[in-house]
């Protein structure tokens, strides 16, 4: 969800190895983060 808020990231890469793993990961595409959560993730990822 956070990656989709970043303008420089065109498409998050999903690392599923099976249909079951993909099914587990798909709900993340619907996840909505609050502005506070996005800001916190921005802070901790700034050095990368």
Description:
With 48 residues, this protein is mostly helical. The chain has one domain. Helices cover 38% and strands 0% of the residues. It is elongated, with a radius of gyration of 12 Å.
Poorly predicted residue ranges: none
Fraction of helical residues: 25-40%
Pattern of helices and strands:
HH
What is the C-alpha radius of gyration, as a whole number of Å? 12 Å
Put simply, the count of helices is: 2
What portion of the residues fall into strands of 2 or more residues? Answer: under 5%
Number of domains: 1
Provide the structure class: mainly alpha
User: Quaternary arrangement of the chains shown?
Assistant: single chain
N-to-C CA distance: 18 Å
Largest sheet: none
Residue-averaged pLDDT = 86
Count of individual beta strands? 0
Shape: elongated
Draw up the topology in text.
Layout: H1 19-25, H2 35-45
Brief characterization of the structure:
The chain is mainly α and 48 residues long. It has helices at residues 19-25, 35-45.
